[in-house]
Amino acid sequence: MGELDETSSVAYQPADKSKIRKLWMIALILAIVTAIEFVLATVLPRGPLLYFTFVALTIVKAFYIVAEFMHLKGEVKTLIWSILIPIIFVVWLIIALLAEGASIFELKF
Questions:
Q1: Residues 42-75 pLDDT 10s
Q2: CB-based contact 61:34 (threshold 8 Å)
Q3: In the chain, what are the domain boundaries?
Q4: Cα 82 to chain centroid, rounded
């Protein structure tokens, strides 16, 4: 019962050093962008400049995650645009809702 099945063969594949190096490079880029966000959060005062910077840096991180880990970097442009255009509209919706929500404080009762 405790014997190994000799008929199955598992072949060891040596590590692909170029893929491992690429993953470490992407992890380093994401870590650097996160560190920049952290430093800016502690240095800059709260306001539109800081929020815009956070959104821009988050988009950079999202690009690397989607392009590399979801393998969309080599896909056809139609697929990329079918993902990008709805995201643009969602970002526009969030900005519009924030602008309208901020205007409630300007109302006088």
A1: 998 888 888 888 888 888 888 888 877 777 776 7
A2: yes
A3: 18-71, 72-102
A4: 17
Its pTM surpasses 0.85: no
Q: Is 58 within 8 Å of 64 (Cβ atoms)?
A: no
Please give the structure tokens belonging to residue 77.
């442009």
Tokens of 35: 């560190």
Distance between CA atoms of residues 22 and 90, nearest Å: 31
pLDDT-based confidence at 109, cuts 50/70/90?
A: low
Q: How far apart are CA 91 and CA 62, in angstroms?
A: 14
Whole-number Å distance between alpha carbons of 109 and 26: 52
**Max CA distance (Å), the chain:** 82
Tens of pLDDT, residue by residue over 10-36, are 777 777 888 888 888 989 999 999 999
